[in-house]
């Protein structure tokens, strides 16, 4: 790994690497990043394709030209911003607007412009995607220049037989985990039921809100108290960059993913799920290696599987 990703991440993670390693500093950095960055070394979902909800084709970015420190003299990405951003309270102003004076790399009023990866570079007045080139400039459909923060609640339960006992996969001998998954309206892919963190909102509130909005139309009924308690005791799985198809050179997605596991299946695990808000469909989905999910969600779910020692 090279470039700003490695440099900023190594600074950010130096305390995590531990003093007992016998490898070089670079080896320690790479090993540490492999533990906390879920399968992302060179983003791929935001390269070499048509930008979502548009006919704008990204400028080609081969693997050897992803990082900003790698020379790419012919790089001429098109500029694209969706008309949907105009006049929206949740969107930044145009980067050239004289009244737009963002505080990069810090909390800007209620807007969090701090990246989980570390300090990002500002070039030509625009934030630079720390994971490298994407083949397109501007914000695309993302509201914020720089990091756009989301929260992803990975809600899980064990798959049970008719007797209420966990089902074991015959190949691995491990219990089969199920996750609450939604089918996204915008692309038809299955995903974790997450969403954007509103300015000034606590991530814990976003996690609960997004799960209820996208799976139960916010209707927990008489179990509201149990649901509140359930979402107060999650385990953080990942915090960082997301290889999202909406990313650009100047705007990108980051997330906090938290696992909420219903061990007995008696709280949210017994809800009859129905789609709401941005979801077309919602269901309890068996988790396994063959499951393909939106953006980097499969990598995040794999971390939950490893933590719970479930089948993959």
UniProtKB/TrEMBL annotation:
Nudix hydrolase domain residues: 158-309
Pfam families named in the record: NUDIX, NUDT9_N
SUPFAM superfamilies noted in UniProt: Nudix (SSF55811)
InterPro entries recorded: NUDIX_hydrolase-like_dom_sf, NUDIX_hydrolase_dom, NUDT9
Annotated GO MF terms: ADP-ribose diphosphatase activity
Spans traversing the lipid bilayer: none
Name this polypeptide is given: Nudix hydrolase domain-containing protein
Organism for this UniProt entry: Anopheles christyi
């Amino acid at each position: 790994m090279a470039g700003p990703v490695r440099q900023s991440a190594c600074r950010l993670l130096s305390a995590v690497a531990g003093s007992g390693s016998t490898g070089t500093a670079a080896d320690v950095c790479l090993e540490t990043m492999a533990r906390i960055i879920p399968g992302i070394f060179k983003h791929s979902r935001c390269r070499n394709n048509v930008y979502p909800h548009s006919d704008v084709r990204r400028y080609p970015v081969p693997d050897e030209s992803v990082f900003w420190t790698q020379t790419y003299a012919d790089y001429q990405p098109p500029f694209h911003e969706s008309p949907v951003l105009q006049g929206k309270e949740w969107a930044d102003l145009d980067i050239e607007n004289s009244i737009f004076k963002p505080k990069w790399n810090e909390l800007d009023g209620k807007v969090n412009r701090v990246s989980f990866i570390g300090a990002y570079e500002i070039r030509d007045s625009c934030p630079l995607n720390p994971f490298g080139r994407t083949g397109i400039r501007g914000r695309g459909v993302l509201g914020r220049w720089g990091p756009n923060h989301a929260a992803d609640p990975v809600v899980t339960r064990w798959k049970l037989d008719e007797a209420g006992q966990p089902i074991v996969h015959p190949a691995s001998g491990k219990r089969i985990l199920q996750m609450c998954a939604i089918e996204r309206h915008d692309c038809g892919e299955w995903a974790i039921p997450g969403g954007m963190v509103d300015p000034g909102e606590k991530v814990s509130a976003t996690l609960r809100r997004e799960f209820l909005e996208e799976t139960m139309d916010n209707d927990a009924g008489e179990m509201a108290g149990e649901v509140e308690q359930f979402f107060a005791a999650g385990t953080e799985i990942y915090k960082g960059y997301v290889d999202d198809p909406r990313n650009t050179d100047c705007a990108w997605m980051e997330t906090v993913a938290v696992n909420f596991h219903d061990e007995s299946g008696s709280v949210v695990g017994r809800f009859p799920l129905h789609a709401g808000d941005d979801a077309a469909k919602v269901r309890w989905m068996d988790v396994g290696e063959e499951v393909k999910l939106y953006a980097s969600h499969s990598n995040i779910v794999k971390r939950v599987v490893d933590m719970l020692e479930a089948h993959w």
